[in-house]
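[Automated response] Your request has been received and processed.

Submitted sequence:
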Amino acid sequence: MAGVSLGVRKAALALIAAGLLLSACTDTAGTDQTPPPSTQGSSATPSSASPTPSESASTLDKDAQAAADAVENWVAVVDRFGANRDLDLSKLYQYARDDALNQTYSDLTAYREKGWTQTGKFSLEVLSSSKNKSGDWVVMVCQDGSQVDVVDKSGKSVRNPDAAERVKFRYTVQKDGSTLYVTGRKAIETC
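Generated structure:
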């Protein structure tokens, strides 16, 4: 994060830590209700994200919207896994690969060992979705964590009170067959 102020770095890192602890859903039988991975041409589970008027769903083409949906789906999946310590982390492989998967898996494992749990959910504002030179999708979002907290076993907040609530992230999404996988995530700045 060279070139970014220490305050923004700390805020982004705190938000990333909180963001990796996301809320889980289970049915009454205790089975995982994680949505399926995004496939091109199908929309992901709806989120509370609201695209900007310049990049609304009506202006994104089908492929760009599918990549944005994959990111929204991933954030919702991580929300669920952060909130429910009983969900099997190996299921994250259905949604992400590479750095995004490795970092999330590592962080969630560490948080579970510390007894931390996420409360609340992140909301996203999709800023743009476009292909890069290598053919991967780059999805820019403003991720709002104002409704999210991370608590210890006693319910005490462990989130940095100085953390920025809204951080701009660049997500990378790759297509494999008809499935889209989140492969990277980088905090850019506050938004």
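Summary generated for your ticket: Residues 29 and 86 are 13 Å apart (CA to CA). The first strand starts at residue 117 and ends at 119.
If you did not submit this request, please reply to this message.
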